[in-house]
Amino acid sequence: MNHPITFKLVAKDAKTHARRGVLTTPHGEIQTPIFMPVGTQATVKAMTPRELKEIGTQIMLSNTYHLHLRPGEELIREAGGLHRFMAWDKPILTDSGGFQVFSLSSLRKIREEGVTFRSHLDGATMFMGPEESMAIQEALGSDIAMAFDVCTAYPCDHQTAREAMERTHRWAQRCQKAHTREDQALFGIVQGAFFTDLRIESAKALADMDFPGYGIGGLSVGEPKPIMYDLLDEIMPYMPEAKPRYLMGVGSPDCLVEGVYRGIDMFDCVLATRIARNGTCFTDNGRLVVRNAKYAHDFGPIEEGCDCYACQNFSRAYIRHLLKAGEITGGRLATIHNLRYLLRLMERIRRAIEENRYEEFRKEFFAKYDMSRNF
C-alpha cells in the first residue's frame, strides 16, 4: 500500500533498541526520535509559530475533539486547512478524539457505532465514531491522523480490556475504510490496557492492517512507570520495524529517555506547557519550581548551559517575580524553556544514537537526574 509518508531508519544503537530515523511528510522531514509539542486548540499555549520554530519544533499536535467543538472543522476547512488557519507550515499530527472522549467518563456512553457524549463547553449532546473522526481529521488536513480508539482506565479487569481492545480493532478497520485523503497518513493505535497478552495481540492485529505508523495508547493514565516500561519491552518485538512507533501522551524527561531506550520514535504530552504556567521547569537535575522563595535572589538562569531565550536572557529571580506578580510573560518564559529543554534533550538523544553510545548516555542522564524531583 502506498502511503503519503515514508520512514527511514538511519542508525540503530548496538546495545539498546534506540533508533534514529527520518519521517518524511507532505509538510517536511522529521528527525526521530522526536517530541511533539501539543497545540490542543490549534495553538501551543503561550507560544507563537515563529517561537516554536526558533526552539526547534519539527512537528506539533492538535486535538480533533476540541477543534470539532470550537471553532468547528468546517470553518478550518474554509480557512484552507489547519496549517493555514494557524500559520504553521511544518507537519501536524491530529489525535482522534478518542482519549478526550475517554476522559469525559461521566459525560459519555460508548457503543459499537461510536460514542455519544455531552460537550464540556455547553452540555450539548454529540456523537463521534470512526467515520466522524476521519471526516473531521480530513477536514483539518493534518499530515498524520490517528484512528479512533477505545481507551481503558487504570486499573481495569481483563474482560473490560479485551472488549475495548477488540472494539478498537474493529474501529481501526472502519477508519481505514472511511479514510480517503491521499495526502494524509492514518496511524493505528495499539491498546490492551495493562495485560501483556492483550497488548501483544493488539500489536499483531494492527500490524496485519498495514498502517504506515503505530501509536501506543492507553498508557501514562495513572499506572506506575515500571508497568509501562515492562509493557513496552514485551510488545516492541511485535511492532513493525520499518514503521514509526509513537508513545502517546508521554513527555517527562525520564520517560523520553526510557522510551527511546525501548525503541520509541515519537512522543507528545501537555506536561511541559501545563507545569510551566505554574512556574515548574525541567532541568537535567529534575524538577525546579522557580516560584519557590529560595530563588528570589537567584540571578542565574533556569538551567546553566541551556540555549533557550529564557535562560540566555533572564534570571530565576526575574521569572519568579513575573510569576508571583501574575504577569503572563513569566509563564511564557517558563514554557519556552520547558519545550526547548525537551527538544534539546531529543537532539542529544539523536546524537547519542548516531554515535552508538545510547547506553552510556542513558546512564549519564540518570546519574545526574534526581528521581525524587521527578514528575
In short:
The chain is α/β, with parallel strands linked by helices. The protein has helices spanning about 50-55, 65-70, 75-80, 80-85, 100-105, 130-140, 160-180, 195-210, 225-235, 255-260, 270-275, 310-315, 315-325, 330-355, 360-370; strands spanning about 5-10, 20-25, 30, 35, 40, 60-65, 90-95, 110, 115-120, 125-130, 145, 185-190, 215, 245, 265-270, 280, 290.
Structural summary, described in words:
- With 375 residues, this protein is of the alpha/beta class.
- The protein contains 15 helices and 17 strands.
- It has helices at residues 49-54, 64-69, 73-78, 82-86, 98-103, 130-140, 158-178, 196-208, 225-235, 253-261, 271-276, 309-313, 316-324, 328-354, 358-368, and strands at residues 6-12, 19-25, 28-32, 34-36, 38-39, 60-63, 92-95, 108-111, 114-118, 125-128, 144-146, 185-190, 214-216, 245-247, 266-268, 280-281, 288-289.
- The strands form four sheets. The chain has a nine-stranded parallel sheet.
- β2 and β3 (28-32) form a beta hairpin.
- α13 (316-324) packs across α14.
- The longest helix has 27 residues, at 328-354.
- The N and C termini lie far apart (41 Å).
- The mean pLDDT is 96.
Compute the separation of the termini in Å.
41 Å
**Rg of Cα set:** 20 Å
The class by helix and strand makeup works out as: alpha/beta
Output the number of helix runs: 15
* Topology, number of strands: 17
Low-confidence segments: none
Strand content: 15-25%
Shape: globular
Strand arrangement, major sheet: 4-15-14-13-12-11-7-6-5
Instruction: Look at the structure and give the mean pLDDT.
Output: 96
**Largest beta-sheet characterization:** 9 strands, parallel
> Helical proportion?
40-55%
